[in-house]
């Protein structure tokens, strides 16, 4: 059995102003201070505007900082975009790449995800790469085909030991409808067979809450979670971290 340290990450999406973000981590860091880095890695991913002040608040704590996206170029005329170097300098350790909302709402392709992974790795950031199927794909029994295509194309030539993966079934995101632990485990095991790595962590995301985290984390190939809504409240995120 590979020794994979659990990772619990909060994806705040487009929530929290800078001052609200700082308030949230001030409360969170007190609630989770007893957690040892070897027991669980804790990550928060605030919006870009709050990264700098949240980074200051997290100095010397057991909580790591992550961003929600990046551009694959180093710098240049890309209005509205943020580079890996900018994220690195501000104190990010992680960056979410290819979240389904980026794929669905902003047209992000597997090819773009692949470029973003290389840009992040070049700066020493750890990508959290997201994959997942829609409800209609699941109902048409296409889940494994979709995941295989996303994994193969997004991770082309990528060293899977340098990244974290997140399986987020789109039908479970923000719907309150979690995949059952067995449904999630089945896809996680499939992803592990595709990447052929025992050390790569595979997170589950989609309506993770304090009352379903325990059962999810009992699954052999679930190594942590990517939490949306429930990470916006310090108490509920702390409960998830302390599952
Ligand atoms: P919810 O936890 O709100 O369903 O969001 C999941 C998610 O998209 C995390 O990246």
What are the salient characteristics of this protein?
single chain; 243 residues; alpha/beta; TIM Barrel; eight-stranded parallel β-barrel; 10 helices; binds 1,3-dihydroxyacetonephosphate
Question: Can you put this structure into words, describing what you see?
Answer:
This protein has 243 residues and is an alpha/beta fold. The protein has a single domain, classed as TIM Barrel (Alpha-Beta Barrel). The protein is built from 10 helices and 8 strands. The chain has an 8-stranded parallel barrel, surrounded by 5 helices. α5 (110-122) packs across α7 (143-154). The protein starts with 6 loop residues before the first strand and ends with a helix. The model has no long low-confidence stretch (mean pLDDT 97). Bound molecules: 1,3-dihydroxyacetonephosphate.
